[in-house]
Specification:
By secondary structure, the protein is α+β, with helices and mostly antiparallel strands. Among the domains are: 131 residues, no CATH class; 117 residues, no CATH class. It contains eight helices and 18 strands. The strands form five sheets. The chain has a seven-stranded mixed beta sheet with strand order 4-3-10-7-6-1-11. β14 and β15 form a beta hairpin. The longest helix has 17 residues. The chain is elongated.
């Protein structure tokens, strides 16, 4: 066994210590120093030094004005609870109604609530963030449609543009199979459960009170703007003044159709179907109950033929004279009969201007008229008309040709 040379061991130790001596005799100098949080960024650093860093910035919500509720639920707390007739009436009028939203509505969401004080939760920034993560059912100012209305004890539930959950047909829930196995009769794809709209709730501190359509729209004003005219308002503006005033005053005129009666009096509380003496079917719509005035509206087909009003004092008013003509969906005042009062005739002349009378003629429209032939009275032509040639004169007026039946005169 050979013995190690002391000089070789010293040389080996010197070689191992050279890296340490080159780094200033600091063993930790080769390690990366942690970044100083208080150090200022180097202004001479090149832009490409942080080219691999991706900074994500959340979208900012656009500024939008805040709307004060036109009516709050607490303002109606002293009223009695809504009855079934009012519920059905409001559902009928609000269903398929259009309006413009004043909030961001997240897709498939139903967390938006209008509390009894008229405040909306979640707030605007939270709703905007939900639209960024879940999708947007409607942006501020978009036109939406109410597609479902449900009354609860202390709240009313509204669905917009189809609601937060896609509706399926009844047959899509049927499964068929053989030998214990089952399967859906319709194919399943990714669009089956995709939401098409959203929903929100109007809350009350007490049971839902009685209200009108305009009051309900004012309660929803923090979320939806119904300032546009409804379909009923647009239709009534096309009607003659007398019919428009009757609908506005909840009065039924003889000759109205079913839609006009519903617009004027709402759907009837009671219906009676019977036959008259001749076997013709008719339907009576009854409005009101004692001790109030009771109105009987008789319809034959789609036309009102009689209106009977039983007053509380015992007076009975029956109207059978036709007042409205509805042809091809266009309503007009019916023609007055000879026995009409002068006041009614004057009123109709003011409401419907008469067309200028024309003499009956067989000529088509645009066909030129020919001058009228006037016969002479004393053998002389009338002024302004050419003289008529005599028969057999060869077309010359005033010259008469000899007739074949008269013998020729002998020459003189």
């Amino acid at each position: 066994m050979q013995r190690c040379n002391p000089f070789s061991l010293a040389f080996l130790a010197l070689i191992l210590a050279l890296p340490v001596l080159a780094l200033g005799q600091d063993p930790a100098a080769g390690q990366a120093k942690p970044a100083d949080p208080q150090a200022k960024p180097d202004s001479k650093a090149k832009p490409g030094d942080n080219s691999n860093v991706l900074i994500l910035k959340a979208p900012e919500m656009p500024a939008q004005p805040q709307f004060k509720p036109e009516l709050r639920a607490v303002d109606l707390e002293k009223r009695k609870q809504v009855n079934e007739a009012t519920r059905m009436h409001l559902i009928q009028l609000m269903d398929a109604e259009f309006g413009h939203v004043r909030k961001y509505i997240p897709l498939g969401d139903k967390a938006l609530v209008i509390d009894p004080q008229g405040r909306v939760t979640p707030n605007d920034p939270a709703l905007f963030q939900l639209t960024q993560s879940h999708g947007t059912a409607a942006k501020v100012g978009d036109k939406v449609q109410i597609t479902n209305v449900v009354f609860h004890e202390k709240s009313i539930y509204f669905e917009l543009n189809g609601g937060p959950k896609k509706k399926t047909k009844w047959y899509q829930h049927i499964s068929v199979g053989v030998g214990g196995g089952g399967g859906s009769v319709t194919p399943v794809n990714g669009e089956e459960d995709r939401a098409t709209g959203a929903a929100f709730t109007l809350q009350f501190a007490k049971p839902v009170p009685e209200m009108t359509l305009q009051e309900l729209k004012k309660l929803l004003s923090p979320v939806i703007d119904f300032s546009e005219k409804s379909a009923v308002e647009v239709y009534t503006e096309t009607l003659p003044p007398k019919i428009r005033d009757a609908i506005k005053n909840h009065e039924v005129l003889v000759g109205m159709n079913r839609d006009m009666v519903i617009m004027a009096k709402d759907r009837p509380e009671q219906k009676v179907r019977e036959k008259d003496d001749k076997g013709n079917e008719y339907e009576d719509w009854i409005y009101g109950k004692l001790p109030q005035d009771v109105v009987f509206v008789r319809l034959v087909g789609d036309e009102v033929t009689m209106v009977k009003i039983a007053k509380v004092a015992g007076q009975v008013i029956i109207k059978t004279e036709k007042e409205v003509d509805v042809k091809d969906g266009v309503a007009s005042l019916a023609a007055l009969k000879a026995g009409a009062s002068p006041e009614d005739a004057a009123r109709q002349q003011q409401e419907e201007p008469q067309q200028p009378a024309h003499k009956p003629t067989l000529r088509r429209e645009g066909e030129q008229t020919e001058p009228t032939l006037q016969l002479p009275t004393n053998g002389q032509p009338q002024p302004g008309h050419p003289a008529e040639p005599d028969w057999g004169s060869g077309g010359k007026p005033g010259e008469k040709q000899p007739s074949s039946q008269e013998p020729p005169k002998p020459p003189q």
